[in-house]
Specification:
mainly alpha, rod-shaped
């Protein structure tokens, strides 16, 4: 079955009536309105996508800030633990010297 568009493409210009012209113009106008509607819909979708990405960026920034704070806390605790280990090692090696100094 031929589409309406094929019917007008294969039509002899000498047989093209005013009615055919009006139907053809109506069909073309409907297609162009549809294209404009699609462009509007695409613009709306682009705005929604941009808004979604902006919200996602804000959440990622917030999560990154929280993660950095937690890493800083762990790093601080790790530094204290390292100093405790070093102090323990030094006291084990120097226990005889410390005991002789105290006695």
């Amino acid at each position: 079955m031929d589409s309406k568009h094929d019917r007008y493409d294969n039509l002899n210009p000498n047989d093209f009536t005013q009615k055919d012209l009006m139907l053809h113009l109506l069909q073309v106008a409907q297609h162009s309105a549809t294209r404009e509607d699609v462009r509007d819909d695409i613009d709306k979708l682009d705005k929604k996508i941009d808004t979604g990405f902006n919200k996602l960026d804000a959440k990622i920034d917030s999560s990154t800030t929280k993660l950095d704070a937690k890493i800083d806390k762990v790093d601080s605790k790790f530094n204290r633990l390292q100093w405790l280990i070093i102090a323990t090692i030094i006291s084990v090696f120097l226990k005889d010297s410390i005991l002789s100094f105290l006695a």
